[in-house]
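Onboarding guide, step 5: your first structure request.
Type a short instruction followed by the sequence, for example:

Predict the 3D structure of this protein.
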Amino acid sequence: MSGSNTPIYEGLIEELGDVPGKVKATAESELEQLRRDFGFGPVRVAGNAAGPEGHAHGRFPRALSA
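The system replies with structure tokens like these:
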């Protein structure tokens, strides 16, 4: 092992492989497959999309969203 500040993590990587890296790669691959299958583009969030109540601003009439 090298002399870094994360010897436990490095030991797990040596023993089990880079599990978080494999999970990320698998998730990215699955997302790409879904985009191809369903024609989805990247999801974009602009600004503060949801208010403190949890619903998006501007989606409901003022009387219902107040």
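Each response can be followed by summary notes, for example: DSSP finds three helices and no strands in the chain.
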